[in-house]
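To whoever picks this up:

The nightly regression suite flagged DMSO/TMAO reductase YedYZ, molybdopterin-dependent catalytic subunit as changed. Nothing in the input moved, so I suspect the structure step. Input below, exactly as stored in the fixture:
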Amino acid sequence: MGIISRGFGGRRRDSAPELPPGQYLTHDFPVLSAGPTPRIPLDRWSFTITTEVGQKHTWDWKAFTALPAEEITRDIHCVTKWSKLGTSWKGVSLDTLFEEVETAADFVMAHSTGGYTTNVPLEDLLDGKAWIAYEFDGEPLEEEHGGPARLLVPHLYFWKSAKWVNGLEMMLDDEPGFWETAGYHMYGDPWLEQRYTGD
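Regenerated output under the current build:
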């Protein structure tokens, strides 16, 4: 009897050089969530960066959408093995949000409405690598995809791009978030197939 390697599935990888190993190409936008979809009125939406010493930087929706925004086109890769190429977003760069933030922390915990969390190294949010996105394909971001705004960190598996994000908490030490506590990889590089602890 032959040996079937871990991760074997019924779908073959599409022959596209843009895909990380183990991924297949999709043209739709699958919806995967850890809980129910929250409904967040814009007049109650806010986003806060909290430093390791407790200093808070907060934006309401009006102040946030008045910040300089960028058009972003990136491939995205889900840990469940689908990839979607050339996705188009609009959002505020984390570089812009961190301009007035003083921190000695190297790690960030992203927090979302509903209690979801995920950890990301700070260096993976800066230098044009991450955004708080509020439009997809030229339209306001739908609630099922994280609207009104979600974290977008496209170079990591998509569970790191927290839906319904409402804040970032600076941390001196790396700590696991929701899926990381359940056994997912602490970093999540799709090109290295860092899906689970030990990968």
